[in-house]
């Protein structure tokens, strides 16, 4: 089974680890898929978790529209719900650092690292 078309369209999955909501994204996050990401973050936050982790591990391209969603979500959720992003590599963590979003939203290289930091 080929999962390429789903990944290309910004496939988004939600899960929970204790009182932490995880939004896992794959493929491309751009102006077409950013609204899906925004809706998924709002849905994850609706359960009033301690934190929402946005996992960009499987993201191949992160456009400014996706970064805008993160900034907006951070503004909407803080201080009641912490927003954390998992991103590593040139496609995700580099642009987040270059535009200064990593200064506003906590950034981790792996999901395990993010969960460990939140649970400590």
From TrEMBL:
Looking up Gene3D superfamilies in the UniProt record yields: STAS domain
Q: Per its UniProt record, what InterPro entries does this chain match?
A: Anti-sigma_ant (IPR003658), STAS_dom (IPR002645), STAS_dom_sf (IPR036513)
Organism superkingdom: Bacteria
Which Pfam families did the record assign? STAS
Domain STAS, which positions? 10-118
One MF annotation (Gene Ontology) recorded for this entry: anti-sigma factor antagonist activity
Q: Which residues form the signal peptide?
A: none
The text of the family note is: Belongs to the anti-sigma-factor antagonist family.
- Protein name, entry field: Anti-sigma factor antagonist
Classification lineage: Bacteria, Bacillati, Actinomycetota, Actinomycetes, Mycobacteriales
């Amino acid at each position: 089974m080929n999962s390429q078309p789903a990944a290309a369209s910004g496939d988004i999955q939600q899960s929970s680890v204790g009182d932490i909501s995880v939004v896992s994204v794959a493929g491309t996050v751009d102006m077409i898929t950013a609204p899906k990401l925004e809706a998924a973050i709002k849905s994850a936050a609706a359960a009033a978790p301690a934190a929402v982790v946005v996992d960009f591990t499987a993201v191949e391209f992160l456009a400014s529209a996706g970064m805008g969603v993160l900034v907006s979500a951070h503004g909407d959720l803080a201080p009641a719900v912490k927003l954390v992003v998992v991103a590593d590599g040139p496609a995700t963590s580099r642009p987040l650092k270059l535009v200064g979003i990593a200064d506003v939203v906590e950034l981790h290289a792996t999901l395990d690292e993010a969960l460990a930091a939140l649970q400590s």
